[in-house]
Specification:
alpha/beta, Alkaline Phosphatase, subunit A, eight-stranded mixed β-sheet, about 15% strand
Length: about 350
């Protein structure tokens, strides 16, 4: 109770201080939509990784949940003084492994960022949800390997357009082994929903279906940033941190998941570096603010109270999950994040 009272006392001070810092570096505050870089993008040729094993590497890891906090800058989370906007993730880092050099090295927008996470491949895609990824996700590969039903793998997202992640256009994988999806108000094309609805839906799915795989998207830092409202942007970071805590607490309080579930917290992209273009309002190019993002992993298989300075990127997440659970990714350009894993 003392901790809660202390947090409630300092929270208004933290918010005001954060707003002043953000506004000081962002003199322009006009709304700007997601846009891609003008620099030519080199698409990598997919390859079949050789360091995945069919045999489970960590027997205690049965479930993996990815939480994507959409669009905060690393400078406003882990690099902010005292990490005051993410106190819960800061506390959880003592239980897990943090990568301090984690990046989006592809297109720094929502759909492409999430696609890199789920497929292990960077590609440029329509950011409205009008285009499906080209290659299968780790969820499809896992379902095929272990002959699991669709309700054992889920995408639960505040943004409706992320429903495209459940499928791909590859001829051998299209419309097969897809995970279930619960995105936006009523699915693709129905609009975004509040993050609290997504949090409750994720807990509902976990309780009802006991999935082995889940990806959760919380939209608010990104949406608030685009509005140009620095107060709402800061609050979105604070709220998403609380959502992460609630989800982890739910896992730890459920005997089906406790000590058998790994959680990865990351971002799809950051935002423009302060002083670059319109700062926190937009993203979409290759500035440091857009590329440098978060990676924190908790649970069985990952080291505790560990900080890695090895450079990794979004395409390394899918092969790492495959390594943890003992299956192969059919395509991918990433590598297993072995220095974050227990030996």
């Amino acid at each position: 109770m003392k901790l809660i009272r202390y947090y409630n006392l300092i929270l208004p001070i933290v918010i005001v201080a954060s707003i002043l810092l953000i506004n000081a570096c962002n003199k322009e505050s006009s709304y700007s939509v997601e846009k891609t870089s003008n620099r030519p993008f080199k698409k990598l040729k997919p390859t079949e990784p050789s360091d995945n094993s069919n045999a489970p590497i960590f027997d205690s890891t049965e479930h993996v949940i990815i939480v994507v906090v959409d669009g905060p800058r690393y400078a406003d989370t882990w690099e902010s003084p005292g990490t005051t906007l993410i106190p819960y993730r800061k506390a959880l880092s003592k239980e897990g492994a943090l990568c301090a050099s984690f990046y989006n090295n592809g297109s720094t927008v929502t759909v492409a960022g999430h696609t890199a996470i789920t497929t292990g491949i960077y590609e440029i895609l329509n950011n409205t949800g009008a285009q499906t990824p080209s290659f299968p996700s780790y969820m499809q590969a896992w379902r095929k390997t272990f002959s699991q039903p669709a309700n054992k793998a889920w995408i639960v997202a505040s943004k409706d357009k992320l429903e495209v992640l459940k499928n791909c256009t590859d001829a051998k994988w299209k419309d097969v082994f897809n995970p279930n999806a619960n995105c936006g108000n009523e699915g693709l094309g129905t609009g975004y929903r509040d993050d609290i609805v997504t949090l409750n839906k994720a807990k509902e799915v976990l309780a009802l279906h006991t999935p082995n795989l889940m990806l959760v998207n919380f939209k608010q830092p990104d949406m608030a940033g685009h509005s140009g409202d620095s107060l709402a942007y800061v609050q979105g970071i604070i709220d998403s941190d609380n959502h992460v805590k609630q989800l982890w607490d739910f896992i730890q309080s459920n005997k089906h998941y406790k000590n058998k579930t790994s959680m990865i917290i990351t971002n799809d992209h950051g935002r423009h570096t302060s002083g670059h273009l319109d700062g926190f309002i937009s993203h979409g190019d290759d500035c440091a603010g857009c590329r440098h993002i978060e990676f924190l992993a908790l649970g069985p298989g990952f080291k505790k109270n560990y900080i890695s300075t090895t450079a990794y990127s979004q395409i390394d997440i899918a092969p790492t999950i495959a390594y943890l659970l003992g299956f192969k990714m059919p395509f991918g350009n990433g590598k297993v994040m072995k220095d974050l894993l227990e030996e």
